[in-house]
Amino acid sequence: MPLAWMPLEALTEEIMDLLNVKNLSVGYYDRFKQIVPAVNDVSFQLQQGETLGIVGESGCGKSTLARALMGYCRPGSLIMDGEVRINNLNILQMNSLELLKLRGERIAMVPQNPLSSLTYHIKVGPQVDEILRIHQGMDSRSARNHTLELFSGTNLTDPELIYDRYPHEISGGQRQRVVIAGALACQPAIMILDEPTTALDTTTEMQVLQLVKELRKKRNMALVYITHDLTLTDYICEDVLVMLNGSVVEKGSVKRIFKVPQTDYAKMLISSIPRVDSENGSSSFRLLVPDREPLLSVKNLKFRYGRHGSLFATFKPKKEPFVVNNVSFDLERSETVGLVGESGSGKSTIANIICGLLSATSGDINFDRQSINKAGEKRSLDLRRRIQIIFQDPLSSLNPRHRIETILSRPLKIFFGLKGRVARDRMVELLESMELVPDHLSRFPRQLSGGQQQRIAIACAFAAKPDLILCDEVTSALDVSVQAKVLELLKAIQTKTGVACVFISHDLGVVKQVANRVIVLQKGVVAEAGFTKDVFAKPKDEYTQLLLAAASRQNDAPIPIHNLGDIQI
């Protein structure tokens, strides 16, 4: 009997190893049609109820391995050798119908990039409904009700409002939680989580992970957790594989590897972890240049989304709540100000308003003594060069039809008129500063890992030689070692050019390293603000205390799980 139609209870009684991977090798074709290995001879076993972490630098093959576990290869790649057995059935030999039944019901995946996994022109609620209708046979009403329960269980505030929004109308963290809800919909036996919390703030991150742990316990579900955040591996996993250049260089229990790593590479990864409770602060980034006027001044900023697109909204208008409500702050030259808070607290919206992608509902923004209360297309070319933004989701900000060389050459040509050999030399210099090689110029964005895509986006921003950089979760897709290098690069550029930075992140350990001052946002309102060392050492607001407790991975931190009992497990 095929796997897709066998009762799960019968399978688990007969076979101990739920997932068995033997000598798996995956490669990609380069432009010369030669196969370049990405995953090399990987083997491991996973029993029901177990959790396995897979860690390593960006580009080491983690995501490629995750896709292969579901019998999937990206265009231009192939599985060269090995087996992937679920309940002793090799899924690499299944036909398309068997794989369709397998995916979602027996094994599900939470991808790294939520925006690319959601259909942009369909509201997010119906997208989860579709999973329940196809795999669970639910009618429309039952599917909607269950989707709302899933949204509530993953701590999406106002689930009914989120249900009727499009992917671009919700924050990155909210999009990620929608995708997690979709993966949980059919209660799979195996769940693969590929960087599932990179877009989440620390409190929501811990809430989602506690939810996953609870589901694992009640459903006896096996987890494969892929991440560059080693502290999360320590929190949720029992065993771990450490990968380098497509191969497993070390494996064993998480406790053993974290305490006594055997390889130099594992030691380097662990030592690179930024921690919010460390004594190292942002003193090396304190490069304030005295000036009578701040470089950037934001006063009483407010923003709300408008309702549009329906006849009902026209005749019965309803004002949306403020996403940003009366936010004010100044930014000096060479200074870094950190914006922290839960997903949906308004961090990215503030950055989008400053760079001109959104127009404020009210308030004033001044940059270098001039008002910039206007959309980006109405700003001068020099002003657009001086204010650059690095987006949270690199793949959606890089043109998928263009090679990296074309993407990097645009700011050089538009802002400085560089062409030919001079432009290429500058591109190579930018790549090398991001720990990338000239060969990446000939690739498309989809041929790069998430971390490599993010470094290309960072290089594009710095190519313009800006005075202000808006960093929206720029290290969320980076492994800890590359993250440390990127932060050192930011330090070097600030020292050399005096560029100022608004640094948005949910990783409070990183914010503590880079930010001179920090602003804590809660539901669009400033909950607390001050010098980073003071706020982190003695937080005054209860919400700030909650964020810091979650960032410290305290198992007893007061992190509420909303409506967990409402989800049918």
- Largest sheet: spatial strand order: 6-7-8-3-9-10
Number of helices: 23
**Secondary structure category:** alpha/beta
On the 0 to 100 scale, the average pLDDT is 83
Biggest β-sheet description: 6 strands, mixed
Shape label: globular
Report how far the terminal alpha carbons are from each other.
Answer: 26 Å
Radius of gyration: 24 Å
Helix content: 25-40%
Structure description:
The chain is of the alpha/beta class and 569 residues long. The strands form four sheets. It has a six-stranded mixed beta sheet with strand order 6-7-8-3-9-10, with helices on both faces. Strand 7, helix 9 and strand 8 form a beta-alpha-beta unit. Helix 17 runs parallel beside helix 19 and helix 18 packs across helix 19. The radius of gyration is 24 Å and the shape is globular. The relative contact order is 0.12. The N terminus and C terminus are likely disordered.
Features:
alpha/beta, globular, six-stranded mixed beta sheet, 569 residues, 38% helix
Brief description of this entry?
This protein has 569 residues and is of the alpha/beta class. It is built from 23 helices and 20 strands.
Helix and strand arrangement:
Blueprint lengths: L7 H7 L2 E13 L5 E13 L3 E6 L5 H7 L8 E10 L2 E2 L5 H10 L1 E4 L3 H4 L6 H13 L3 H14 L5 H5 L8 H13 L5 E5 L7 H18 L2 E5 L3 H7 L2 E6 L2 E7 H6 L4 H8 L24 E8 L7 H5 L8 E8 L4 E6 L5 H9 L6 E6 L2 E2 L9 H6 E4 L3 H4 L6 H13 L3 H14 L16 H14 L4 E5 L7 H18 L2 E5 L3 H7 L2 E6 L2 E7 H6 L4 H10 L18
Parallel strand pairs: 3-8, 3-9, 6-7, 7-8, 13-18, 13-19, 16-17, 17-18
Antiparallel strand pairs: 1-2, 1-4, 4-5, 9-10, 11-12, 11-14, 14-15, 19-20
